[in-house]
Amino acid sequence: xxxxxxxxxxxxxxxxxxxxxxxxxxxxxxxxxxxxxxxxxxxxxxxxxxxxxxxxxxxxxxxxxxxxxxxxxxxxxxxxxxxxxxxxxxxxxxxxxxxxxxxxxxxxxxxxxxxxxxxxxxxxxxxxxxxxxxxxxxxxxxxxxxxxxxxxxxxxxxxxxxxxxxxxxxxxxxxxxxxxxxxxxxxxxxxxxxxxxxxxxxxxxxxxxxxxxxxxxxxxxxxxxxxxxxxxxxxxxxxxxxxxxxxxxxxxxxxxxxxxxxxxxxxxxxxxxxxxxxxxxxxxxxxxxxxxxxxxxxxxxxxxxxxxxxxxxxxxxxxxxxxxxxxxxxxxxxxxxxxxxxx
Length: 343
Prior knowledge:
By secondary structure, the protein is an alpha/beta fold. The chain contains eleven helices and twelve strands. This is Transcriptional regulator.
């Protein structure tokens, strides 16, 4: 079947090819009557005309494609929301997202950048699956944006979650409920997780504001999964009664899920005997625990949108400092006042 051409649209609409070109490109909106524009668009739809995107990109030097390079973001629980935010913003501005997952391999990353550059994408977004400080890879297009990571040397627009303020938010939930013995179940020591130290700083800030002296025994580390949370919480819940925490702030929701198991194994009820706050608002965990988990949400969708809007020049950004995206609290049923015997 022969490809429908712009001249076919012109013949069907009874106008010149130049008029069709201006109408379909949007260049003639102030020079061509609304009636004629409608006639051209109706004719194009009726005969099935599709613009030649290759030819258009050669004329405009824009492909209307954005390259999104990630490490293992496509296989993480949060990838869907982050990619949805980026894709929604791109679609709203007439762009297509080309995703390349490199599995964190530098050689693959380099080839991906070269391939996207060869395809003349209009912009690039460089993403990681969690908040990290990274070295900017060579060859990134000018104006590229870092998503859920920030370049060690600065100089590029970047968006990351405000993990320190998120730690503040989580700990304040427990202080506001009346807790004084509050533990922080942290990621493993030496893990290099940027969020670990930032959330701990927020935790310490709130304790200081509340006049609570931090107890080093209430800052414990564990693997960031349910097993790690169960083991770490178990160590805390086996402390003498006068030192045992009444509130737990967990590094993530998976650790909080393990803390629930540790509490139940010891006959403790949540939140009557123990209050728990998580972090991430992870799908299929936080809202499905019994009781549902109060947690701090990571703003993956919002970060994805922000990064894409900056890449498309629809939003201004300061390349000298990363944009810190708010991590809001999601209140559910896992926080209550401390038990009376706790004092």
